[in-house]
Design brief:
Number of helices: 2
CATH architecture: 2-Layer Sandwich
Strand content: 15-25%
Structural class: alpha+beta
CATH class: Alpha Beta
Bound molecules: guanosine-5'-monophosphate, zinc ion
Length: 116
């Protein structure tokens, strides 16, 4: 996708602080971190969101989840972390290329969903 910011990062047209890369997947630090550890895990393949995944993506998605916990521990989240996948307008997605947020650090993260 020509104008997708995460495709551009995957193609190295935009620099990123990369922490992992293989043929299918890239992980890099979020430009606006919400906690001491905050990186994004993306497929290099342009998939718009979790609402757009297909059966053919099953292996890729499994690989991404396994990498999420491995990289989280490597980045210093041995005591836990939060994994967020914002999906679509209601989910607050801003970049329409599937990405997992992995967020953590030393302190317990604040609650997320506010009732009321
Ligand atoms: P969303 O709301 O779509 O789940 O989150 C998009 C995330 O991408 C945000 O946390 C934002 O800070 C991050 N982001 C947007 N543009 C860039 C960029 O050019 N580089 C990096 N590293 N992160 C970005
Ligand atoms: Zn893309």
């Amino acid at each position: 996708m020509d104008n997708c910011i995460f495709c551009k990062i995957a193609r190295r047209e935009i620099p990123s602080n990369k922490i992992y890369e293989d043929d299918e997947i890239l992980a890099f630090n979020d430009i606006n971190p919400a906690a001491p550890v905050h990186f994004l895990l993306i497929p290099k393949l342009h998939i718009e969101s979790l609402a757009d995944v297909q059966d053919s993506h099953q292996n890729l998605l499994g690989k991404m989840l396994l990498l999420a916990q491995k990289l989280a521990k490597e980045q210093g989240c041995e005591e836990g972390f939060r994994t967020i996948i914002n999906t679509g307008r209601v989910g607050g997605q801003e970049v329409f290329h599937l990405h997992f947020h992995i967020i953590g650090g030393r302190e317990r993260l604040p609650g997320m969903i506010h009732h009321g």
